Amino acid sequence: MHNLNRYLFGTVFLTGAAVLVLEVAAVRILAPYYGSALYVFSSVLTVILAALSIGYWYGGKRADQKHSLDELYGLIAFSGLLVLALLLAAVTMLPAFSRIFPVSIGPLIFSFGLFFLPAFLLGIVSPYIIKIQSIHTPGTEIGSVVGKTFFWGTLGSIVGSIASGFYLIPTLGVELSIILTSIVLVGVGVVTPLFLDQPLRKKWMVSVLSIVVVFGSFLYLLIQTRDAQYAYRNDGIYSSIAIRDIDIYGQPGRILNRDTNSSSAIFLNNKDLVFDYTQFALLYPKLVPDAKSMLMLGGGAYTIPRTVVEHDPNITVDVVEIEPVLFELAQEYFDLSDISRITNYTEDARVFLNRSDKKYDVIFADLFSTSMAAPFHLTTYEYYKILQERLTPEGVLLLNYAGVPQGPQPSLTGSVFKTISAVFPNTRAFMVRPPRTTKFQNIMVVSRNSDTPLQFPDALTFRSGQNPTFEDMELDLTTYDFTKEYLLTDDFAPVEKLMAKQR
């Protein structure tokens, strides 16, 4: 009985770990298609918890009827096959069908379709194991059996959560982490009965291993074919990262994608900035003529810092980028050769601002550049107050905001403008694609830390070929009815809800 308990507790430990690896990986699987929105986290948690709860109920009912070790470990092996199958389905289905469903319901639909059944089968394990142990346990010790089972299952979940977040996904990537989880579950289902003196059913074992080989081979070929189009593709700590060479405005170029966001790009035959909104970064000499220091929040491929230090020999640039590997990738893939005046900080932007008391002549914030999700704590009144405190008296904030210029109130755009204006009364905003006031686009917000008027040239030269004047681009903030917009705060910032309205 002691040997049986040891293997049963080991089984519940490993299956508990598998559930959490699957849960963390599920968020990362959906992120390239739906971003890191609150909807993604909520959908994955909802589906996994619903599957486990139904699995607990059905597992207890089924165990009362049969409580067979063969069936238990057969279900575990089958769950491992399903985990492999879900990865295969994700690789083939998400690129093809994710755009059919909006971010408000798409993550829930795909979470249910891809992750419900494996989590349901794993939910069966705990009550099944409790039932098997109870047959050989005195009635006075049933509470102890239940407690130990949940202890080992929860401990496994803790280990799985830590392992997936701190080691598996950052080291192996999402797909290999899921494949490893599948192998572990199949191994537990096939091998453990041998240690419990259960008869080896050779045909069943050969069938399971054959399916693993077939699924695994097909999956490997799909992944290899997909990755062949990229110069680099991997999972970072905070997002999926993909680098590929493409044609940009008729020229050879290279682009960095992070989840759903086209984060940065370069031309391969010159060092001009690619995206139109980035041209605003070169306005700082007119706005702050004697600027000596710039803070760049959000490095991406470091194209703006690269261009600034090349154009201005008197300025130093601090870059805060939360994704650790991007600074190295920028040097390897995006021609970031001169880093002598660029200091990189691997940190969340707001954490860095809270810990630093350094003041800058120019702050360029490029953290709000996707239609799927935005870090809410980088949209609030408290955040903009910190930015104000980190600017010199005549310092300027250049902020890239992505959204719809005008929409039904309350709107995300109006709420962002209201919040920034509450901190920086001297603020102006410019559409990069005028006059498309109802279309999603980059909007540059320029704020000064003093009352000195913000002066701009007549026009900018955009690589896209469209060169509107500043007069054409400007949004008149006085036309926004701020009484109907939200003041975004750390306590209340419904960014995802407002973002869903403007899609």
Structure overview:
The protein has 503 residues and is of the alpha/beta class. It has 2 domains: 2-227, Growth Hormone, Chain: A; 273-501, Rossmann fold, CATH 3.40.50. It has 15 helices and 12 strands. The protein has helices at residues 2-34, 38-65, 69-97, 106-135, 142-172, 174-195, 202-227, 284-287, 303-311, 326-333, 349-355, 381-389, 412-423, 470-473, 495-501, and strands at 232-235, 240-248, 251-258, 261-267, 293-297, 316-320, 342-345, 360-368, 391-403, 427-431, 441-448, 474-475. The strands form 2 sheets. Strands 7-6-5-8-9-11-10-12 form an 8-stranded mixed sheet, with helices on both faces. A hairpin with a 2-residue loop joins strand 2 and strand 3 (251-258). The chain is elongated, with a radius of gyration of 27 Å. The mean pLDDT is 87.
**How would a crystallographer describe the biggest sheet?**
8 strands, mixed
Radius of gyration: 27 Å
Which bin fits the share of residues in helices?
40-55%
Strand order of the largest sheet: 7-6-5-8-9-11-10-12
CATH structural architecture of the largest domain: 3-Layer(aba) Sandwich
What's the assembly state of these chains? single chain
**SSE order:** HHHHHHHEEEEHEHEHEHEHEHEEHEH
Count of DSSP H/I helices? 15
Give the averaged pLDDT, no decimals: 87
Counting helices, strands and paired strands, the structural category is: alpha/beta
Distance between the termini: 60 Å
According to CATH, the fold-level topology of the largest domain is Rossmann fold
